[in-house]
Amino acid sequence: MALNVAVLGTGTVGKEILSVLAERGFPAGEVFALGTRKTIGSEISFGEKTLKTRDVEEFDFSKIQLCIMATPDTTARKWGNKIAGAGCIVIDTSRAFRNDPQVPLLVPAVNAAAIEGYAKRNIISCPDGATAQLVVALKPLHEAAGVVRAVVAT
User: Fold this and answer.
1) Strand partners, 66
2) Cα→Cα distances 153→36, 135, 136, Å
3) Strand pairing partners for 44?
4) pLDDT of residue 153
């Protein structure tokens, strides 16, 4: 089943998300790039296609099933609940929902089963890049030897 997908945020992370979705052949129906009024009409690549950025303020979120937010925390807080309330699943890359007990903090290679909890709010949170990489490396060590504590500086 092809999902209609939006990526909110057309900066470096949003561009990379679109690139990876295209590269991996994500089964998307329609794909939308969303941004603020100052980015409306700017072009962004999605595989061989070029998307024109649409205004998040005017977008009808009932047209999509999945929205990946690559935005600062304040923008994620402003839009996350609204988008999820429209029935769309939100994957948030900011810190906005990381400490919310009703939002799963997901690293698929580590705790994929936690995705079940998304339905409470229709939002899934992602840890920052350094944490995600670290827990992927620590998981097999923990399973083999029982990691008790890790002290990390980034």
Assistant:
1) 5, 89
2) 34, 14, 17
3) 51
4) 87
- Please compute the mean of the pLDDT values over residues 21-38 and round it to a whole number: 95
The structure's pTM equals 0.91
Residue 154: pLDDT band (50, 70, 90) is confident
Domain spans of the chain? 3-96
Q: What is 3-96's CATH topology?
A: Rossmann fold (3.40.50)
* Chain centroid, CA 52 distance in Å: 20
Residue 120 has a CB neighbour count (10 Å cut-off) of: 12
* Per-residue three-class SS string for the chain: CCEEEEEECCCHHHHHHHHHHHHCCCCEEEEEEEECHHHCCCEEEECCEEEECEEHHHCCHHHCCEEEECCCHHHHHHHHHHHHHCCCEEEECCCCCCCCCCCCECCHHHHHHHHHHHHHCCEEECCCHHHHHHHHHHHHHHHHHCCCCCCCCC
